[in-house]
Every structure is written in structure tokens, then in C-alpha cells.
Design brief:
The chain is an alpha+beta fold. The chain has eight helices and 20 strands. The strands form four sheets. It has a nine-stranded mixed β-sheet, sandwiched between helices. The N and C termini lie far apart (44 Å).
């Protein structure tokens, strides 16, 4: 297996860097080659303020062994190397763009577009499956859930849905978006892909990292089997009991219609009835200037928890039940 200048033979683990042409940046990559089977790409840090996945991928790169994998696993712990180095939030430092809105990218574009294009040109062609790890941003709390993309080729959708069934979350979201995001674009290009959400507020905990790692191992066990993947996993059980996950096909992403101070009335994971007041925006004198209500009965997947709320920024996202 060869990725850029990084090459690994069966039974080898190699770590190195993939340059982002036209920028000073490089992507850290670990390649674990167990044989001639399929290749799974695992990334984190597409949003650089989402740290649970970053730590989980770094630890998986150290812990996974070639003999446990019936193929190849490529791990990239930080994709937004620009924002991460500046302790930024989701955005690329130089251009303020959100990487997960810019795929497939542009070789002649801004820094964000060049990073995306490097992933598209170098990593995606090698991948048969894709797992992308995310969290809530510095200002967001989040209830764990997993995405796959619905409106793609049936075999791609079915394979991704089976991967999502291996993840130990209560909710699974069938996204209707096929553009912009890394896993969205990969799915539309024919690579079964999932995006796992866990954690938030710029924090990470040992429990959250271990849960992310367990989910990744469950998916890898489903894809490859192998004794090294099976201990402590629940892949087959999850596939049998997939009905225990609640499928959400209608997710509402509500942005702030005005700026001010934000006061949420519920927490991520709470069930809210139709017309429930989810929160309100107040001006700097304490006057209520906007009330956010649930359009349908829903579960709050993530929401802003910082007091400051810029106009047009994410306020709350909920799945219609």
C-alpha cells in the first residue's frame, strides 16, 4: 500500500506525513497494513476544536496491529492542521472556512480548499470504507449519534448503514446531504462512510475516547473480523439489534436569526414536545428578542451552550421523532 510518499508492506505499520501542496502544512498519517483486503480510512480533526476523535485516532494508531486487520487501515488524527495549530474552532485559520463544507476542494483555491483536495486526491482513492470522528465545537454540547448518507447508490447506503449499526449510540441519522462534507462527498463517490459524533465543549474525557475507540473497533471487526478486533466488541450484537437504534431522517439545524445572549432551556439528548421553547435570545439589557421553539416532537442532538451567540451561527440542532 502506498499513500503519497508513505509505503507499507503486509505486516508493517508506517507513520509519516502527506504534504498539502501550496501550503506549509502536512497531514500526519499512520498506515497499518495487515494484508491484501479492503482499506478503511479513519480521520479526526476535520474540525480542529473537536478533541475526542483526535485523541482516539492517535491511540488507535498506536494500539492497532497489522495481524489484527485483514486489510489496511489509514489513520489521520488531525485534518485541519491549520486551525489545530492555532487553537482555533472549526475553521481553517487563514481563510475562515469550514473544511466540512468545502469538499472536494480545489488545488488552486484557499488553504481550506487545498487541504480538502489533498484528502480527495490522496486518501479517498485508497479507501474502500471511511470513518470520520467529530464532536461538538468549543461552544456546543452534544448527545452521541452517528450519520450515514441516504441518497447514494443502494449498495453504498446499505454498507454504511451496517457500519452505523455497529456504533454504540442511541440515535443514527440518515443524512440527505451528498455534498460539502468529507463523509458526504466520499459517500457520493461510492465509499461507504459514517460520521460519529461524541463529546463537545473543546473537552475530551477518558470515557469518551474509549467509547470512540470501541466503536471504531466494532466497525473494523464487522469489516475484517479477526481476534484482535473481537475482544470487548459488540459488532454482531449491534447488527442483530440494530432496531434498538432510533433512526432519524429529519434533522433541523437552526441558526441564530440575530445576535445576542443565548439561554437554552434543555440539554443535549433531551426529548422535547412540539412547540416547546428550546431557548431564547436576549439583548444586552436582558430583553427577549427571539424565542426558539421546536417545530415537531424532537430530540436535541447538539446546541450552543456559550452565552454569546453571533447572528447566523449554529443555535440548536434537533432530530424529529
Amino acid at each position: 500500500m502506498r499513500i503519497g510518499n508513505l509505503e507499507a508492506c503486509p505486516g508493517e505499520k508506517k507513520a509519516g506525513w502527506i504534504p498539502v501542496d501550496g501550503t506549509p502544512y502536512r497531514l500526519p498519517v499512520t498506515m497499518i497494513c495487515g494484508g491484501d483486503g479492503k482499506t478503511t480510512l479513519i480521520t479526526a480533526g476535520v474540525h480542529s476544536g473537536e478533541h475526542v476523535g483526535v485523541q482516539a485516532v492517535m491511540e488507535l494508531a498506536e494500539e492497532l496491529r497489522p495481524e489484527d486487520i485483514g486489510g489496511t487501515v489509514i489513520l489521520v488524527p488531525i485534518v485541519n492542521v491549520s486551525g489545530y495549530g492555532q487553537r482555533g474552532t472549526s475553521m481553517v485559520w487563514e481563510d475562515g472556512k469550514n473544511l466540512n463544507r468545502e469538499f472536494p476542494g480545489n488545488r488552486e483555491g484557499t488553504t481550506a480548499e487545498k487541504i480538502c483536495r489533498t484528502v480527495t486526491d490522496v486518501l479517498f482513492p485508497a479507501a474502500d470504507y471511511y470513518i470520520d470522528l467529530h464532536s461538538g465545537d468549543y461552544f456546543e454540547e452534544l448527545h452521541p449519534y452517528v450519520y450515514y448518507v441516504g441518497p447514494v447508490k443502494e449498495q453504498v447506503r446499505a454498507a454504511a448503514q451496517a457500519m452505523a449499526a455497529c456504533v454504540d449510540t442511541e440515535y443514527v441519522v440518515e443524512s440527505q446531504v451528498t455534498t460539502g462534507g468529507a463523509y458526504n462527498y466520499a459517500s457520493a463517490a461510492g465509499i461507504p462512510s459514517i460520521l460519529l459524533e461524541r463529546g463537545g465543549r473543546g473537552l475530551w474525557s477518558r470515557a469518551e475516547v474509549e467509547a470512540d475507540k470501541a466503536d471504531v473497533r466494532n466497525v473494523l471487526h464487522h469489516l475484517y473480523g479477526g481476534a484482535g478486533m473481537s475482544d470487548g466488541t459488540r459488532a454482531e450484537e449491534a447488527l442483530r439489534e440494530a432496531g434498538k437504534q432510533t433512526l432519524l431522517t429529519d434533522v433541523r439545524y437552526i441558526d441564530a436569526p440575530c445576535g445576542g445572549c443565548w439561554y437554552p432551556f434543555f440539554s443535549a439528548g433531551d426529548i422535547c414536545e412540539k412547540s416547546a421553547v428550546l431557548g431564547e435570545i436576549r439583548d444586552y439589557f436582558g430583553n427577549v428578542i427571539h424565542i426558539c421553539r421546536a417545530a415537531e416532537r424532537c430530540v436535541i442532538l447538539y446546541q450552543t451552550v456559550s452565552l454569546n451567540l453571533p447572528k447566523g451561527s449554529p443555535m440548536v440542532a434537533y432530530g424529529v421523532i
